[in-house]
Amino acid sequence: MNLRRLLLIVLLIFQTILLYGQTLTVPTPEQVCFGEQGSIQATMSSGPGNNRRYRFDLYLNSSRVDRITTGSRTVTFSNLQVGTYSISVYRVNNGGNNPSFVDSENNIVLNNETESPIFQNPQSDISVNASDNICGAIVSYVYPVASDNCSARTGAITGYTSLGTLNGHTYYYSNSAVNVTTASNNSTNLGGHLVTINTQAENDWINSKVGEVWIGYNDAVSEGNFVWVTGENSSYENWNGGEPNNSGGEDYTVMYANGSWNDLRGTNNRRYVVEFQTATLSQTAGLPSGSLFPIGTTTNTFLATDNSGNTSTHSFDVIVTDNTAPAIASLKAEYYNGRSFNTLMETLNVSELNYNWGSGAPESNLVGTDDFSIRFQGNVKAPQTGTYTFYTTSDDGVRLWVDNNLIINNWTDHGPTVNTGTFNLLAGEATPIQLEYYERGGGAVIKLEWSGPGLTREFLTDSGGGSCNDITLDLSATGSAIISADDIDPGYTDACGIASRVLSKTNFTCSDFGDNAVTLTVTDVNSNVSSCDVNVKVIGAPDNSLSVVGDTKCDNEDAIVIIRDSELGVSYALYLGVTQIGSSVNGTGSDLNIAVLAADLPVGNNSITVKASKGACELDLLNHAMIVINPKPSPVGIFHE
């Protein structure tokens, strides 16, 4: 074998080793954010050699989707959709011909990103005491904010015009007008949602770039309760005058070209704005910030969802404790959003029920100038017993209950109107009243006046509800009486409700004659306790504390029992043991002498019980009379037989 042939053989062996020793390496591709496209990088272990090139063929589900022929050993396939790919590598000549297989890689998976959003400002548990006048507390908290590893969608979208970026969110304006269902579905399919607007600045920014458009605000589920399609919370609204009015079943919202909002039927066609954000936040449990939280623990849970559908949750508790004991009612006003007492916003004290707000806001700054309602509650105390007239002046609806009886009912829209009703009241008794009022729009007026025996017409003012009052029981006709908490309670109330009212003593008989200390204990549903002490004076029974004086006599002599300061209208009888001795004698208003016949008195000490009777009451006097009967002495002298 000559040298030339030997060198050729060595060269072929070297080329074979070089060819078959080359390997393909494909790193795991980076995950793809929703709405974006991915890439795959492939690298050969060495170059293709002189006068040779590599041909990289990329396959998706067995179909070739790309080919790169290069003299480099590394290539990158870009603009790829999610899926499972394979790559085959060939060596070709500089013209791309005469391919010879080198290596391949299968099951190259390009995935959507799977990293969950991260909450940037986790909220700690909140513990507060309940407000004095409401069963709960209005609690505000900072809404959690979530971020994601993927940015909001950018770049061109067919059929849409980019409006730009605001606060990290991107916005696209549709080129065509569609109904609201199509607009919402298109937005979701793109990985966004119909635009949600939380501030005046955001409203102005969008309005400066578009005409009339659908926005993601509707009351399709519950009429009058508008919510954002994302479930996010926002107190911002920008309704046009007189809107929303639900004319003909209007459940969806458009932004006018002037930036104000109007409710509209969803079948209308309008252009729309799609909003993209790194993560959408919705509250899945609990109550929005600024709500009235009830007594106990309310768990608030927020769900963050990124554009790829990855989620994370964050929860915290709002714990409201009721430490307020029941109190004697005074005149209060509960202010509600909505004309049907929809959402309690605040409870305020009322000094005089005389309000004319015109077109302005009422005392509470938590309700607007229109579409609110108020419930006034308190007590009235009549100076004299008799019939009283109540006068309401209202714009708009009004209802008045006195002692739970509806006496005025004009629950309609109207201008300033006076209505009257009458009710019989007892002097000095705290009688509950409840006045309900709503304001739709325009002027707002609510006044309550009253007049009656001993009272010229005047506005109702806070009477303070009164106090626990002593009571007197006359038992002369019945001999006994039972009282209840209603006889003592001057009007204890509690925002959460009264659980029980208990008297320390309820049953009274003639033996309770005089003063009796009684305690009323009022317990609310959360075990807070208030109490007051009263005196229950029992009359109509004879005074059993009178003094009596006995006598000392010899056998067979009549005796006398003296009752000091006997009472008129009381009959007195004397008893020796269980046997009456002598006849009953009526009191004179002064000392009373009662004779006792000698035949009724044995020799010795006789304890005499005095029974006093008045009407249905009969009592033994506490003091007894002692009549001492001495035996007559035997004769003493000298006797002769």
TrEMBL record:
Q: Which SUPFAM superfamilies match?
A: Anthrax protective antigen, C-type lectin-like
Q: Print the keywords alphabetically.
A: Repeat
Residues folding into a coiled coil are none
Classify the source by domain of life. Answer: Bacteria
Q: Which InterPro entries match?
A: C-type_lectin-like (IPR001304), C-type_lectin-like/link_sf (IPR016186), C-type_lectin/snaclec_domain (IPR050111), CTDL_fold (IPR016187), CTLD_bac (IPR034007), HYR_dom (IPR003410), PA14/GLEYA (IPR037524), PA14_dom (IPR011658)
Q: Where is the C-type lectin domain?
A: 166-275
Which residue intervals define the domain PA14 in the entry? 326-464
User: What is the protein's name according to its record?
Assistant: HYR domain-containing protein
